[in-house]
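Here is the promised in-class demo. Please do not try to memorize the tokens; focus on the logic of going from shape to residues.
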């Protein structure tokens, strides 16, 4: 009897069609964009837990189940939030969503505050690069105005050359503002400094976002927000200044904070509610009595943006590529791992985390409350937003070169006939923008197995064009939707690469580590 088999990769039996099927379901309108703290999100985690159980994985969450509860706080700034600025008898008012977005971190339903605006350039204190935007100026009680990103560089010794460092990330700006005792902080958005458009900022911030509960007695910014470029121009105009001039000034090492002489006033009402969310976590135990209490982790975030602002009449942010694809790969990896007749020595953890879109909340929570101790966690291999656009010619593993598993990754790529591509957009700082980073920060070697940068049989530059098009038209938009004509071969290849890499790491004698001299350590 001749049986027709679905398209499978040779080694592991990974099926592109199964990855397609999971992606289709997880991104269907029925799941309503998998928002954190929504029914669609609950359904998504239920599906993932069920599939993991079917793969033979065992839950390691609360009470021996599949879920690790992640207690978050949902904060939604009311659209009647007001932002006003005055200087020398002139004043300007700014409109929520059109001009600014953001949220108060005080987690109080109604706040008013007032403070003087101070421009602090990129808001960076980086002693190793001899860079300090604050120059000892006391910013306590001030409203800081900054640009995201970092001084431009082509020198690998200065802010890692073209690559974005963590200093360039917007999250760092707010963290550093808080460390300096600022009252509030606004980032003036420009598309080049952010690497994405205002729509992405607005879609992420102009709605409920999830935050961790503040530590008792902990400090928080009264407001952390973004201004459009135009709003920034109007604000700075009150002080006779311009966005381009200040951006240029902030790129010089002798930059000093610029007092703007502008008084900022805000009234912010917020809807605040507990958001009970959850990570899904399951294991397939290792086979070696001595090594099975150590683990490798495969991770992917299950959440997306839920239901939000309509774009072309569509309110459901399906998140098909971001990140139904990664979850689909995670489930297929679990199935294939579960069907191995001889299990690898170390245990494999399959972890679907919540609230990545609210800035890595679920993975940070896991890293702070690990279900396998981090000292016994070999590596995190993460999947986030892969492109189903055909057969990959390469694999992108940005950050792998920082770890001791890189030579192994090179060998496996070679075996699979895949090039290891350089990060084509190092300035976008992808290494800091997905869940592996929460593990890296906690010392565990970690990186993402990303979307291909070149596709076989497609013209050179197709991958870059696909990235640009996705980033511009679909990233964090309702149009990130499942397409029937997608070809999931590249996802099966990325899954197989991670499968073989994970299996070898699970069988190695030593736990992997960071290479010496890097930013991260165990
Ligand atoms: Zn995303």
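The designed amino acids, position by position:
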């Amino acid at each position: 009897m001749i049986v027709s088999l679905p398209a499978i990769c040779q080694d592991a039996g990974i099926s592109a069609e199964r990855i397609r099927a999971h992606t289709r379901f997880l991104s269907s309108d029925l799941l309503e964009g998998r928002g954190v703290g929504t029914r669609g999100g609950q359904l998504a985690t239920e599906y993932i837990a069920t599939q993991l159980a079917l793969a033979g994985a065992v839950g390691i969450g609360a009470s021996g189940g599949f879920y690790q509860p992640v207690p978050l706080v949902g904060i939604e700034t009311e659209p009647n939030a007001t932002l006003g600025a005055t200087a020398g008898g002139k004043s300007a008012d700014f409109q929520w969503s059109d001009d600014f977005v953001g949220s108060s971190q005080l987690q109080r339903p109604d706040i008013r505050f007032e403070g003087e605006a101070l421009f602090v350039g990129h808001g960076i204190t980086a002693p190793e690069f001899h860079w300090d935007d604050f120059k000892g100026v006391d910013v306590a009680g001030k409203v800081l105005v900054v640009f995201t990103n970092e001084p431009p560089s082509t020198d690998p010794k200065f802010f890692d050359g073209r690559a974005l460092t963590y200093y360039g990330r917007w999250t760092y700006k707010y963290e550093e503002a808080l460390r300096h005792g600022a009252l509030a902080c606004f980032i003036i958005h420009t598309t080049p400094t952010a690497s994405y458009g205002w729509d992405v900022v607005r879609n992420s911030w102009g709605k409920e976002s999830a935050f961790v509960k503040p530590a008792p007695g902990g400090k928080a910014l009264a407001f952390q927000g973004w201004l459009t470029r135009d709003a920034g121009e109007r604000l700075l105009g009150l002080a006779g200044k311009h966005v381009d001039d200040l951006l240029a000034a902030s790129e010089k090492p002798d930059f000093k904070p610029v007092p703007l002489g502008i008084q900022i006033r805000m009234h912010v009402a917020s809807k605040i509610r507990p958001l009970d969310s959850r990570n899904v976590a399951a294991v397939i135990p290792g086979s070696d009595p001595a090594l099975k209490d150590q683990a490798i982790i495969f991770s992917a975030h299950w959440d997306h943006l839920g239901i939000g602002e309509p774009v072309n009449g569509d309110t459901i942010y399906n998140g098909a590529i971001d990140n139904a694809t990664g979850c689909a790969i995670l489930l297929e990896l679990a199935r294939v791992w579960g069907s191995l007749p001889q299990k690898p020595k170390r245990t494999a953890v399959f972890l679907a985390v919540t609230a990545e879109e609210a800035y890595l909340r679920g993975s940070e929570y896991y890293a702070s409350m690990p279900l396998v101790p981090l000292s016994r966690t070999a590596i995190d291999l993460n999947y986030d937003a892969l492109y189903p656009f055909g057969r990959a010619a390469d694999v992108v593993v940005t950050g792998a070169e920082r770890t001791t598993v890189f030579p192994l990754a090179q060998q496996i790529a070679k075996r699979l006939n895949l090039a290891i591509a350089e990060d084509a957009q190092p300035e976008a700082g992808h290494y800091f923008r997905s869940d592996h980073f929460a593990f890296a920060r906690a010392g565990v070697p970690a990186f993402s197995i990303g979307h291909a940068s070149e596709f076989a049989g497609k013209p050179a530059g197709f991958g870059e064009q696909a990235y640009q098009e996705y980033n511009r038209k679909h990233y964090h938009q309702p149009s990130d939707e499942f397409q029937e004509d997608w070809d999931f071969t590249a996802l099966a290849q990325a899954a197989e690469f991670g499968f073989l890499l994970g299996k070898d790491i699970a069988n190695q004698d030593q736990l992997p580590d960071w290479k010496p001299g890097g930013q991260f350590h165990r």
